[in-house]
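Listing S7. Sequence submitted for prediction.
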Amino acid sequence: MWLEIICGLVIYQLVRRFFSDDEFSDVETSDSTALFSVAHRLEKLYGGKAYVGLRIPDSDTASRQDIDVVLVTSKGEVLVVAVKNLSGIVTVTSDGSWVCEGGKHHTTETYPDPLAQVKKQASVLESYLEQRGVTLLEGNVSCKVVIPNPSFRTIHAFPSEVITYEEWQHLKPVSRGKLSGWVKGAFSTGKEMQESSHQKLNFILGTAPMWDRVELKSSKIVLGEFLEFKGKQEDTLALRNIKRSKVDHVSIQKTSMFGLGNFSLELDYVFACGIN
């Protein structure tokens, strides 16, 4: 009997190891997952294409501006979005910084003014687009800060550019015209030139630098900078022959012990420059 119990426990742990999501249990409500959730809803609400996790070069600081989401609608309208997946009580200081207390880690965190940051990101994005051949009309890139976390609490009144959780939940799809004042038209030229500029804009954003992305089972996503692969030599040997610049994505599957199942990871641009 004891032997059967022990064998049962061993098999349970093996199955749990290969099928459980516990290792990534915090990913479901992670900042990365929140970005893609917001981007997906923006596409449903306003149409077009949302680009997530852009890292746009900033020539003024010789660094990169990390932009959460850029939405380009089917009309060529442009929206730059900062996603603040904050839980807890948020207060705003005199310099515009946000102080968040009692979040999921029960700590106090201070964040620079998110609205000022996203406006800076939009400015850097406009300069980057201009360098690559697309000039938007002055002032025609709109900025928003979206707070999608239901545990967000505050007593402050925010500017209209800040969309709180309650406002985010009640947004409705708009007509085929402009986005109810959210986004101004990006181009003022003729129809053919608008279409050409729109296509070029999507091409530029689709090929712009961005964070590496790992897609896990249950549609969980992690953004980051993956510099190297670690593991058994036979697992990584083939990867060393792949150049990062030549790869769009790679799918990795691993079969569990006893053939009980498998899981897969899809990684976009995950090959570090040092891996040739």
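Caption to Listing S7: primary sequence and predicted structure tokens for the chain studied. Residues 226-276 form one domain. Helices lie at 2-19, 31-46, 114-131, 165-169, 191-206, 233-236.
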